[in-house]
Each structure stands twice: as structure tokens, then as C-alpha cells.
Specification:
The protein is an alpha/beta fold and 347 residues long. It contains ten helices and 15 strands. The radius of gyration is 22 Å and the shape is elongated.
Length: 347
């Protein structure tokens, strides 16, 4: 596995803007089924992170849809099944549903169905699950990865659903997983997976996480009021709070692109210095994700920000004095600007 320091050897420019088209997303919870159910090739799974393996699966679905002259639809679950099955051990996610939808649209998916995973879905038989989804889309082929299963006791395996498909007119197609480039592994496995990416992010291995994802790892959240400690020392920061459990990089300081108005046509990217940790110099006890945008003096409270992590500069340090902290922070910001370019730019 790469040392995090090697993240500094290659730094991309601002990410390409991804725009969420809500007209092409259906949040099934509370939604009214369409009067006419479309026929489609459906890629089905959790798709947390929409990584390179997911992109390959979606490419298979698109090719199959083109061959059949149909739309390509993705069905993804929210909340993540692990949050329902293990509520006391919530899995930190790599992405949010709206991020997944935007990435899927960029991959050529025609429509995204966000399916609610709850106790009812968990208890359904395979036949009941298929009957439920056909109210919103009529699959002619379901594309999935290895180990896919739905319903009560995970009884809806690919083989079982294939039998159900004989009645409902669809077939099951399994896509093999994608392996990482030679020399990039996590916990001994060469397979690209959401769980592997979570481990890479949480250990600060930004370069390897980016390789698995095919893009920079992100962190989407809302800016909330803090104790304004950063402002008192000349570094006003935005405290970014996610909506739910989120895979968070290892404590330390990072260079990142900070996206305001994320996933919209008005998105703007700023070079940022990100601090993650509990502020040991101030005897802090709460772990925070704080973003400093050099040269920006606008009001960010209540706004959504999306952080695109580029490189880990250093670990968290307890400094002997505020002056020593400020000196180091000035150096960190200078390094970030050197890596990322101008302090604010729009792609």
C-alpha cells in the first residue's frame, strides 16, 4: 500500500462538475408509481461510492440496454441495508444517495431508483420484492455483482430471482468484480469494493482510495456553528457535519478542493486546507472536520459543502503554544495552495 506521503507526487486540478438531475431520480419512499411502467435493463445493488467496479457493472448494463433498445436504470438502496440490519454498528458510508445518483448520471444511466430499505423490504419474499419493483420499472435483465441477494434471510439469490424472472420476463446477469492495479491492495484483497475504500479513507490513504474510486474521495456535509476558535487565531474554519455516518479520513491535515453549491450548475471549487481531529492544542474532546478556504470571507453557515480530498499533509499534532500552531498552519496553507494552485477557481 502506498504511503500517504506519496499523495503529494501528483495532484489533479479541480474535479469535473457533476450536476444532479432530480428529474432522473425517483425516491420510491412515498412516491406514486408511474402510469406506465418502463421496460429497462436494471443494475441493482448498494453502489456506495460508485467506484470503478460499480462503473464496470453499469457499463455492462448500458451495453445490454443498448442491445435491447431499452433504458438503463439503476436501483440503489437507502438507507444502506447494514444500517437496518446492524443499527447499533452503523457502517460509515463513502457517499450519499444524491452523490451516487449524480455519478451514475455521469456514467450514462438514464434513471436512478432510490429504494427504501426497511423492515418490510427485509422481510419480503423474492416474489414480493419483484412485484414491488415492477410497480416502478419492468426489468428485462437485472445486472448485479457477486453475492447479490435480497429479501427475507437473503433468500433472493441470483439463482432464485432467475426462477422468478421466468414468470416476470427478466434474466439475471452477474458481472465479475474488478481488481485494483498491481501493487495496490488493502487487507490482502486485490478486489475493488466499498468496504476496502472505507478502510483506505479511514487510514488516510487518499491516493489508493482515489485509485479504487476513479476520482477523489469526497465528504458532503452542512456547515454548522462552532466555538469560532479558528477565527480568533486568523483561520476561520467551516465545521462540516455529515448527514449520517460517513467514512472520515484519519486525523490530520489535508489538501482538498472545497465545493460550494455542490452537485449544481452553480457549483464553485475553492482550494482548501482541511483539519480533522479533536484540536489537542486546545484540549478538545470532539472530533471535527474543519475546512479553511484561503481568500474566502463569505458566510457559509447552513450551506452544504463537499470536500474532495487530494492529499494528506501530516498527522494531528499537539503544539506547545498557539504561536507554534499558527506557524505550522501558515505552512500547511502554503503547501495546500502550492499543490492545488490558486485559492479559488471555477472549472
Amino acid at each position: 500500500m502506498h504511503d500517504p506521503a506519496t499523495d503529494l507526487t501528483h495532484v489533479p486540478g479541480p474535479p469535473d462538475r457533476k450536476i444532479l438531475d432530480l428529474a432522473r431520480v425517483t425516491f420510491v419512499q412515498g412516491a406514486t408509481p408511474p402510469p406506465v411502467t418502463r421496460e429497462a435493463v436494471v443494475a441493482m445493488g448498494n453502489f456506495d461510492g460508485v467506484h470503478r467496479g460499480h462503473a464496470d457493472l453499469i457499463a455492462h448494463a448500458r451495453r445490454e440496454a443498448t442491445r435491447r433498445g431499452m433504458e438503463c436504470v439503476v436501483l440503489t438502496f437507502d438507507p444502506h441495508p447494514a444500517h437496518v440490519l446492524r443499527p447499533h454498528e452503523p457502517t460509515p458510508l463513502v457517499s450519499t444517495p444524491i452523490e451516487r445518483a449524480a455519478w451514475m448520471h455521469a456514467l450514462g444511466v438514464d434513471h436512478v431508483l432510490v429504494w427504501p430499505f426497511d423492515a418490510d423490504v427485509q422481510s419480503q419474499t423474492p416474489e414480493q420484492f419483484v412485484q414491488a419493483i415492477t410497480r416502478f420499472v419492468h426489468p428485462r435483465a437485472i445486472i448485479h455483482g457477486p453475492g447479490f441477494a435480497v429479501g427475507r434471510g437473503r433468500a433472493g439469490t441470483s439463482a432464485v430471482l432467475a426462477e422468478v424472472g421466468r414468470t416476470h420476463g427478466f434474466e439475471m446477469i452477474e458481472v465479475v468484480p474488478v481488481t485494483a492495479p498491481s501493487g495496490v491492495t488493502t487487507h490482502g484483497s486485490p478486489l475493488i469494493s466499498s468496504s476496502a475504500i472505507r478502510r483506505l479513507v479511514e487510514t488516510g490513504s487518499i491516493a489508493d482510495a482515489s485509485t479504487y474510486l476513479g476520482r477523489l474521495p469526497t465528504y458532503l456535509g452542512t456547515v454548522r456553528h462552532g466555538n469560532k476558535m479558528g477565527r480568533t487565531i486568523g483561520f476561520p474554519t467551516a465545521n462540516v457535519h455529515p448527514d449520517g455516518p460517513r467514512a472520515t479520513p484519519l486525523d490530520g491535515v489535508y489538501a482538498a478542493w472545497v465545493e460550494r453549491n455542490p452537485l449544481s450548475s452553480t457549483a464553485v471549487f475553492h482550494a482548501g486546507a482541511i483539519s480533522i481531529g479533536d484540536r489537542p492544542t486546545f484540549n478538545g474532546t470532539i472530533r471535527l472536520v474543519e475546512a479553511f478556504l484561503p481568500g474566502f470571507d463569505g458566510d457559509l453557515y447552513g450551506q452544504e459543502l463537499r470536500l474532495h480530498f487530494v492529499a494528506r499533509l501530516r498527522g494531528q499534532v499537539r503544539f506547545e503554544s498557539i504561536d507554534a500552531l499558527v506557524t505550522q498552519m501558515n505552512g500547511d496553507v502554503a503547501t495546500c495552495l502550492h499543490l492545488l494552485g490558486e485559492p479559488a477557481k471555477q472549472p
